[in-house]
Amino acid sequence: MTPRLTDWSLALAAVLAFTTGLVSLISGLPQEWFIFALHAIVGLWLLLLLWGKLRRVWPRLIHPRRWDRRTFYGLLALLLVTLALGSGTWWVAGGAWYFAGFNLLNWHIGLGFVLTAAIVFHMFARAKRLRKRDIAGRRRALHLGALLLGGVALWPTQQVAERVLNLPGASERFTGSRESDSYAGNAFPTSSWVADAPRPIDAQTWRLSLRGAVTTPRDFSYDELVAAQDEEEATLDCTGGFYSTQRWRGIRIGRLLDQTALDTDARYVSFISVTSYRWSLPLEEAHTALLATHIDEEPLSHEHGFPLRLVAPGRRGFQWVKWISRIEVLAEPDPGEVISIFSSSFTDAGRGK
Ligand SMILES: Nc1nc2c(c(=O)[nH]1)N[C@H]1C(S)=C(S)[C@@H](COP(=O)(O)O)O[C@H]1N2
Ligand SMILES: [Mo]
To answer: pLDDT of 191-243, one tens digit each?
Structure first.
């Protein structure tokens, strides 16, 4: 392949790796497994392409006479790519390594963002146009096709190897998350998207308010919600890399919404924490989701969102809002919720004031 074709293939692979990685963060339904497979395949493809690029720039790296400022950036980029691909691959194989309090998956995600930014910057500064002769010709096409196929073929090989070698990663869920303390009540790990840490909530004075596109806004007491006794077994799957299946108890959101009439333009239901952290579900999905007060017979612990948290099967953990005090029925989607999950930790309530 010509240098330009290698470089443009690398750029394409990087864009695909970034998008599939981003989409994987909000994927949790079993039928969305292919997003994760695609992400892995693109990673393996990147590895093959890098091999080609490395062979080309190798002489420039090993001869001190040929070093310049660009060598330094080249080496930095190589290090970044190695760490990003390495952390992902190692996590998938079952690696349990922590650095600065973050696991390999956390590092993989962080490095993915940094690397993408670096590539975009590099392309604006140095990208050369693809010419016809970079892509024309049977040999070129065959070569490119072989590399693509190589990436696709490596994926099942890696999956089988993982099982044959019985690597710890073989027991991971399709999302890459590892099981932790299922059916163990409040004992499973607790997690925050950033650092939400509100004060414990007094259930006797706490109220859940239902507002928005409804004919009569309503407040519910803790005891009213507990009385419903609806149950749901569901898996909380955190993008940080653990999952836990529990029997949740509380009130089905459909049952709650039935207590008032919805406006005809009602489309989404937004769940809002005392810290202002919020997330919404389409109305139909919200109907079947649960607002949990208990895990098995135990009330939720403070860390798990007492008095009330969202249990949204098939959604990733960060969407399972904890410490809910308000529900708002919406006519439009709420793009601001994406910002709310980052900013809530900086509100007074989020900092525990
Ligand atoms: N209010 C609020 N809800 C939240 C979060 C948060 O930071 N604030 N973190 C989310 C994340 S990232 C996950 S994985 C789950 C973790 O739930 P757990 O602590 O019960 O395990 O809660 C979600 N709900
Ligand atoms: Mo999470």
So the answer is: 999 999 999 999 999 999 999 999 999 999 999 999 999 999 999 999 999 99
Name residues of the chain where pLDDT drops below 50. none
Measure 318 CA to ligand 1 centroid, in angstroms. Answer: 5
Question: Where are the alpha helices (H) located in the chain, listed in sequence order?
Answer: 3-25, 33-62, 69-93, 104-126, 132-135, 138-164, 222-226, 253-257, 283-288, 337-343
Cβ contact 240:108 at 8 Å? no
Pairing relationship of beta strands 278-282 and 268-273 according to DSSP bridges: antiparallel
> Taking Cα atoms as reference points, which of 310, 295, 316 lies closest to residue 241?
316
- What is the bridge-based pairing of β-strands 324-330 and 207-212? parallel
Compute how many other C-beta atoms are within 10 angstroms of the C-beta atom of residue 4. 16
Whether the CB of 185 sits within 6 Å of ligand 1 = no
Q: Give the pair of three-digit tokens for residue 91.
A: 């996590």
Q: What is the pTM assigned to this prediction?
A: 0.94
**Pocket flag, ligand 1, residue 317 (CB < 6 Å):** yes
Please state the atom number of ligand 1 nearest to the C-alpha of residue 275. 1
8 lines ligand 1 (CB under 6 A): no
Locate all alpha helices (DSSP H) within 63-137, ordered by sequence: 69-93, 104-126, 132-135
Residues with CB in 5 Å of ion ligand 2: 191, 238, 240, 317-318
| Atom 11 (ligand 1) nearest CA | 318
Ligand 1 proximity of 241 Cβ (cutoff 6 Å):
no
* Interval 146-194: pLDDT, tens: 988 998 999 999 999 999 999 988 899 999 999 999 999 999 999 999 9
